[in-house]
Design brief:
mainly alpha; 15 helices
Length: 364
């Protein structure tokens, strides 16, 4: 029975990234379904995990009672995402299932970009980002079936971490190296600043030859295509959109003059009194949704995980996790997307600190 369940896990992990395959986010249902499958497979859950989940559930529940009329049920998803991470990191075999599940999505995302150049303006363009907003419609960025190029990049970086672990601690074949080539291409055609930062960081530590090649190419590109790169990095439309969302956050949360709102939030991740309701800043979004109490819980959980990695001399992974949790969220908001929990799980999985089969590791 366990073997049969394991056979379907790559598909479940693949489906857990399909946010925009249809008009409704089916990834949420598949992540919940994956949690149920993993829970059935593992039979138990640790006391520490239950305590952690209960703390987060309490924050969500308090926010719900205070904002019962305006509460967005999307705010339940971080609780499901946390359960997903807790269950995923306890199984050593989950690395290989996630490895293949993510890769197929990345491959499809790259193929969709290639097809958009061959046959543009079809219904498949829903899954490709034509970069009109950056003033560069000739660039087609990969999104796959995720909501943004950022989330596609996050998913691709998750796979890259799993590849590094497989290469360093198990073995890789020509097939794996071909898969790596596809993923690197997929990351490059996101044309996403945050993703590029972490790609450069990862290659510096784990792919030195590629890092030097990428660095030389980047320097040459800056010289010859300065105006294009300037538009990509310092895009005014993107900045204006984020400023508009923060203005709404300022009015709705900061200037609410309500201690209850400041402590427990508005119970909604959007601001509806502005032209741009989406708060494109993860920190501001958390404060608006769950208040200072919710953000404090997030900070403590994240801080503890980063500290555990540092204490066990996982320098690369500790910085990677710190960047994803606290730096990247300044520029985007991924708390309500499955890819956020997938990359957190990938970092913890590859650390080897929470594998229940290893008696020397930490319990979660």
């Amino acid at each position: 029975m366990k073997l049969r369940i394991s056979f379907f896990l790559p598909f479940l992990f693949f489906a857990s990234t399909l946010n925009r395959l249809f008009t409704f986010p089916i990834d949420k249902f598949f992540i919940l379904g994956t949690c149920l499958v993993l829970l059935y497979q593992q039979k138990t859950i640790s006391i520490k995990s239950l305590q952690l989940l209960l703390i987060v559930f309490a924050v969500v529940l308090i926010t719900f009672f205070i904002n019962s009329l305006s509460f967005s049920f999307l705010l339940l998803f971080p609780l499901i995402g946390l359960l997903f991470v807790v269950l995923l990191v306890r199984g050593t075999d989950n690395k290989k299932y996630l490895y293949y599940g993510l890769w197929w999505h990345i491959l499809l995302g790259l193929l969709l970009v290639i097809y958009s150049y061959i046959q543009p303006y079809t219904f498949l363009d829903t899954y490709v980002h034509y970069m009109y907003d950056k003033g560069m419609p000739f660039l087609h960025a990969s999104m796959g079936f995720t909501p943004t190029v950022q989330t596609f990049g996050t998913m691709s970086l998750s796979w890259l971490l799993l590849y590094v672990h497989k290469r360093d601690f198990i073995f890789t074949t020509r097939v794996d190296r071909f898969m790596l080539f596809i993923v690197i291409l997929g990351i490059i055609v996101t044309f996403n600043r945050n993703t590029f930062v972490m790609l450069i960081f990862t290659t510096f530590f784990h792919f030195k030859k590629f890092f030097y090649l990428f660095f030389l190419t980047a320097v040459t590109g800056v010289i010859y295509y300065y105006s294009v790169i300037e538009s990509l990095v310092l895009n005014v439309k993107t900045l204006n959109s984020r400023i508009s969302g923060l203005e709404g956050f300022q009015n709705s949360y900061v200037e609410s003059n309500s201690l209850i709102v400041h402590l427990f939030g508005r119970g909604d991740n959007n601001v509806w009194n502005t032209q741009s309701p989406l708060i494109e800043n993860g920190i501001a979004s958390m404060l608006h949704s769950f208040g200072f109490v919710g953000f404090l819980v997030y900070g403590i959980i994240g801080g503890v995980l980063v500290s555990l990695l540092l204490a066990n001399k996982k320098w690369f992974l500790s910085f990677f996790l710190f960047y994803i949790l606290f730096i990247q969220q300044i520029f985007t908001t991924e708390l309500y997307n499955g890819t956020f929990y997938i990359i957190v799980a990938s970092i913890l999985l590859t650390s080897g600190l929470f594998n229940k089969k290893n008696k020397t590791t930490l319990e979660i």
